Amino acid sequence: MGVVAVVVHEISIWRKVMDRLEQDSQEKEQKKQYAKPTIKQVDLRPEEAVLGFCKSSVSAGPASSMCTIPGCSSPGS
Amino acid sequence: MGLLQRQVKVAVIGSILGMQRRAMCDELTLINIAGITISVDSRGLDRLPSFEPAMESFFVTTDVSKNFSTVKTPDVSIKLLMTDAESYCSLERELLFDSGALWRLYDEQEHYCFQLTSPKFGDIPYKIAHFHKDFSQGEIAFHRPFFSESQSLEPLEHPIGELLITHLLSQGRGIEIHGCGLVDQAGNGYLFAGQSGAGKSTTAQIWLAHSGAKILSDERVILRRQSDRVLMSGTPWHGEARLISDETVVLNKIFLLRHGRTNELCRYHTGEAVANLFACSFPPFYDSAGLAFSIDFLTEVAARVPCYELFFTPDERVINLITNHYEV
Known about the structure:
The structure holds 2 protein chains of 2 kinds.
Chain A: H1 2-30, H2 46-49
Chain B: E1 8-15, E2 18-25, E3 28-33, E4 36-41, E5 50-51, E6 76-83, H1 85-88, E7 94-98, E8 103-108, E9 111-116, E10 127-132, E11 137-143, H2 160-170, E12 175-183, E13 189-193, H3 200-211, E14 214-217, E15 220-226, E16 229-234, E17 248-259, E18 264-267, H4 270-278, H5 288-304, E19 307-312, H6 317-323
Parallel strand pairs in B: 4-6, 6-11, 13-17, 17-19
Antiparallel strand pairs in B: 1-2, 2-5, 3-4, 7-8, 8-9, 9-10, 10-11, 12-13, 12-14, 12-15, 15-16, 16-17, 18-19
Helix pairs in contact in B: 4-5
């Protein structure tokens, strides 16, 4: 009986190991394919980013009243 | 000091192009932009200051029967004055940043000094803004020789108003985005971000004409965090469509505008979204803490709000694409 119990125990361990191997195999198949890292460049417009641009920059400030564009209300769209 | 009251006086100024309206305010003006309150004290001037009409929607209207002291303490208090710019600036200063166009920033130890110049007047600044480094207080000075007695004085004229707001935001409050913000009739807040020419004003006009949406701005919006939500607020700075609102809505989706032959949506990964939003923002590049906060804030926004690349055609079909799009 003792030998039978050992054999049963060994079989259950073997089954667990086989189940785990099968699970690992399935996970490997589901893993995404390796993609080499890439660099994507996003353009920055410095003159807009620093608020240095105005539609009527030549008429900013006190000169604006002399320009046909009234004031500097458009930030530079 | 007696009771301070704010009265808005609308002055009609004739010009060769027609009528130009500017809001003229009393000695003390309160302005609220995206929860940031600015107090402008003009008692140091020889005339009342004026503001662009778009700014009127952002004036804090106080009940004239109430004492001014009951109004919430402003986030920044600004005094206006006329001066001689050449003697006004400190000699002990270090150039921090040159925008290459309208303004330069100097570090004067305890203050920041923004000097605004115009090609018409050369290197002498027509306006100088001094702020404490925490931007809680400041002065805006006009170079007297450049302003005739009849000329209007606009303290927050571009770019100084936005410079002030973007610096305050970078201290931990939020960020300003180059974009069109709107809320549709279902209450969804959408941000359409893009650089000049991307189609922000076009987008605003399409939604306004074909969907009944409310436009917060066709040029600049401000994003802030409120617990786990991102709020989007209108600003007084508009684009060609001249659309503004002082309202704040919950931001549900962000779209980065691209011209296209068809209408298509492509979901961004968080990193891509942050990079593209950063390119449409106005961070203080010369302030490492402010820059770090801006990037961290955009990362939080991108993690909470779905961001898409939107290829669109300039017609109402794009509305159907967006309103019928659901995340699985």
